[in-house]
Amino acid sequence: MDEFEKVEKLRQRADVTYEEAKEALKQTDGDLLDAMIWLEGQGKVSSEEQSTRSTTYEEQKDYVDVRKTVDEEKRKSDRTFGQKIKYLCHLIWIKCKDNKFVVERKDNRIVTVPVWILILALIISFWTVGIVLIIGLFFDCRYEITGPDDLSIVNSTFDKAGEMVDKVKEEYDKL
């Protein structure tokens, strides 16, 4: 490392002028550590800026327990196909149970049911439920899924469907 680089490094670490850093290096034969100590002795660097390190263990709230994470990943990878399907069904059940399907008409709630009821109705009678939902749009019904999960994509799709029906109604009224 040449003299200029040493001066720059000392300036950054000690927060001193170029001349002070150059003088400190001159006094210590170019040794950075000794120059830093020399500057402290001159009172040009406060020792309060130095950070302290400790080898004692303190529980950190921001850190993740690595052993627990590795064990969880291993358990997930060791699952058989049937166990993975069971776990997936369990996740879907939790999401469907916690979120609600809401039907509103002119800012009045008509129906609020868990999403699993809507899915069950669609499985049993897809065409009937689908047609009823579409006809409901023409009678100013609007649909939304509420709950703890972020389902803004689904809700924006419902909004777009309602806007599309409104445009169709406007075009029909023009005829």
Which helices and strands, and how do they pair?
Layout: H1 3-14, H2 18-27, H3 32-42, H4 66-77, H5 81-98, E1 100-105, E2 108-114, H6 115-124, H7 126-138, E3 141-146, H8 152-174
Antiparallel strand pairs: 1-2, 1-3
Helix pairs in contact: 1-2, 1-3, 2-3, 6-7
Notes on the protein architecture:
With 175 residues, this protein is mainly alpha-helical. The radius of gyration is 34 Å and the shape is elongated. The protein has helices spanning 3-14, 18-27, 32-42, 66-77, 81-98, 115-124, 126-138, 152-174, and strands at 100-105, 108-114, 141-146. It is built from eight helices and three strands. It has three domains: 3-46, Helicase, Ruva Protein, domain 3 (Orthogonal Bundle), CATH 1.10.8; 65-97; 99-174, no CATH class. The model has no long low-confidence stretch (mean pLDDT 83). Helices cover 62% and strands 11% of the residues. α1 crosses α2 (18-27) and α2 crosses α3 (32-42). Strands 2-1-3 form a three-stranded antiparallel sheet.
